[in-house]
UniProtKB/TrEMBL annotation:
Organism of derivation: Halopseudomonas bauzanensis
Lineage: Bacteria, Pseudomonadati, Pseudomonadota, Gammaproteobacteria, Pseudomonadales
Cofactor(s) listed in the protein's UniProt record: pyridoxal 5'-phosphate
Reaction(s) the record says it catalyses: 4-amino-4-deoxychorismate = 4-aminobenzoate + pyruvate + H(+)
Protein name (database record): Aminodeoxychorismate lyase
Listed GO CC annotations: cytosol
Similarity comment: family membership: Belongs to the class-IV pyridoxal-phosphate-dependent aminotransferase family.
Subunit description: Homodimer.
């Protein structure tokens, strides 16, 4: 009950096509083939953070996968449920819906939308304050330019990479492409300070274009500190003066170590942490 004595409305733990349930058909193509997209959205004070960037990426994914989605309906549902959630996380999943056996797309798909809510994650404060150690993952990202950048449901590369360590010493893992060039973390994007400017790996062949990555690129460009997006060699990573990883949930974590290599937590990284904190509060 609220202070008026009326029953308070609570956010549903899971909505499927707007209905409170966790049941999804066994014929759903998201389950069978990973045929769909997802977004993990931080909610603070009843508002989805970085909403513009999340829905811009979702729109690109919908177009690339040819999913007949009404983005206005989805955004309205997210915003309404965010008011009820207050603080927490949403996982928004969009699939092509049900179909018969086989890869062929249904001619008139009935898209499935799933909105799951969960409490805020609890990360150690020292990750942001003192920096993190990266685990050097052996799992490599394969090249697929048609899907590069999208947050699609096929995440087996990330699942395998994250399974490589179980200790608490490493907060994140470095994942490279087939050539051994650094691309991203298992759940984050990478930025490096190289020759007194920020660079971040190009994601035109593999990797996920994180929304925090996009936000920071825009903000830094507006401040006259443009980020260069390009291929980066492993040697360039090692000679960087500052390194950090970022995502739309934890913000920015300085990277201080990878195997035997170490970096300081630099003043440029601290400035970017401030930018990220402002948009996630």
């Amino acid at each position: 009950m609220d202070i008026t004595g009326m029953a308070a409305t609570r956010v549903a733990e899971c909505l499927v096509n707007g209905v409170p349930t966790s049941a999804v058909s066994a014929r759903d193509r998201g389950l069978a083939y990973g045929d769909g997209l997802f977004e993990t959205i931080l909610v603070r004070g009843g508002k989805p953070t970085l909403a513009e960037w999340h829905f811009q990426r979702l729109a690109l994914g919908v177009q690339a996968l040819r999913l007949p989605v009404d983005l206005a309906v989805i955004r309205s549902e997210v915003e309404q449920q965010a008011l009820l959630l207050g603080d927490g996380l949403f996982k928004l999943i969009i699939t092509r819906g049900e179909s018969l056996r086989g890869y062929a797309m249904p001619q008139q798909p009935q898209v499935t939308r799933i909105l799951q809510s969960s409490p805020l994650p609890s990360y150690p404060a020292q990750h942001a304050e003192q920096g993190i150690r990266l685990y050097p993952c052996a799992t490599r990202l394969g090249d697929q330019p048609m899907l590069a950048g999208l947050k699609h449901l096929n995440r087996l590369e990330q699942v395998l990479a994250r399974s490589e360590w179980q200790d608490s010493v490493h907060a994140e893992g470095l994942v490279c492409n087939l050539a051994g060039d650094p691309i991203e973390g298992t759940m984050s994007n990478l930025f490096m300070r190289l020759d007194d400017r920020w660079v971040t790996p190009a994601l035109d062949r593999c990797g996920v274009r994180g929304v925090m990555r996009g936000f920071l690129i825009e903000q830094l460009a507006a401040q006259g500190d443009a980020v260069e997006e390009r291929s980066i060699s492993f040697d360039e990573l090692l000679r960087s003066t500052e390194v950090f990883c970022c995502n739309s949930v934890f913000g920015v974590w300085p990277v201080v170590a990878l195997a035997d290599w170490q970096w300081p937590v630099g003043v440029h990284t601290r400035d970017i942490q401030t930018l990220a904190k402002q948009v996630l509060m």
